[in-house]
Design brief:
Blueprint lengths: L1 H31 L2 E3 L4 E3 L3 E7 L6 E9 L4 H14 L6 E5 L5 H13 L3 E5 L1 E5 L5 E4 L3 E3 L2 H5 L5 E4 L4 E4 L3 E5 L4 E5 L1 H12 L7 H13 L6 E2 L2 H6 L5 E3 L2
Parallel strand pairs: 4-5, 5-6, 6-10, 9-11, 10-15
Antiparallel strand pairs: 1-2, 3-4, 3-7, 7-8, 11-14, 12-13
Helix pairs in contact: 3-5, 5-6
């Protein structure tokens, strides 16, 4: 009887671990299947696409920007590379964002790409894109949170198109996925060693206030979020140019 119970317990333990592993892998897989909420309906979209960035009433716009959307991951880097294969000779000069942040290492790679190519960055109140069927779509309630902050600051030319978007920050960390829940773990040193290199540049005239912003981020728990006010945005020199305010 004891031997039978041991086998049952062992089987249940192995089955439980296998189920947890499969579920965790599935959760990660779902993150890569990006569904974006547009003005009228949700659509599937690559994590990098060409867009028109505008203020709310469309009086100020930038055409043909690279728009990074969704959670930043290795598939974001892959989608950027695929996009550039098609648009390499189209005069791309600006990268804009509508992302909640994501993996710090992949964000750092994108930041280095922005620096290397001398690209401008931007945040806009709304973006106009085309879906896979070339149908026009509009993105609203735009945001640049967490790791996205440092992509935005990776350029010396940072453009604000309007003012109605969300920029929020917190310390770096990881979400440990346990299938039925995520456990957020802060890791402040990741801010210092990974993102500091994007800010502490000799050619960055705003590096002192940007490093102050980094220090603020480190004080906010990874499990929480601090939304920047207009005063914060001005104080930390998040943008160098404003269109349509």
């Amino acid at each position: 009887m004891k031997a039978y119970l041991k086998k049952v317990i062992l089987f249940c333990g192995i089955a439980g671990l296998a189920a947890a592993l499969i579920c965790t892998v599935y959760q990660d897989y779902k993150k890569e299947k990006l569904i974006v909420k547009t003005l009228h309906e949700d659509i599937h979209l690559p994590k990098a696409t060409i867009a028109k960035a505008c203020n709310r009433d469309e009086t100020y716009c930038l055409d043909n920007v690279v728009l990074i959307v969704g959670e930043i991951s290795d598939s974001t880097v892959s989608d950027v590379n695929k996009l550039l294969e098609t648009w390499r000779d189209k005069g791309i000069t600006t990268v804009c964002f509508d992302t909640q942040g994501g993996n710090v290492h992949d964000a750092s790679s994108l930041g280095q790409w922005i620096l290397k190519n001398g690209l401008s960055t931007c945040m806009a109140e709304t973006y106009f894109i085309k879906d896979k069927n070339e149908k026009p779509r509009q993105l609203i309630n735009t945001k640049c949170d967490s790791a996205c902050n440092y992509l935005l600051l990776a350029s010396n030319k940072r453009i604000a198109i309007g003012q109605s978007y969300k920029i929020a920050t917190h310390s770096a960390g990881v979400n440990v996925s346990l299938c039925i829940c995520n456990v957020p773990l802060s890791s402040g040193f990741m801010n210092s060693f990974i993102f500091k290199s994007l800010l502490d540049r000799k050619d960055n005239p705003d590096k002192d206030v940007h490093l102050e912003f980094l220090a603020l981020s480190k004080r906010v728990s990874f499990a929480d979020s601090y939304k920047l006010t207009l005063s914060d945005i001005q104080r930390f020199r998040i943008f160098t140019e404003t269109m349509g305010d």
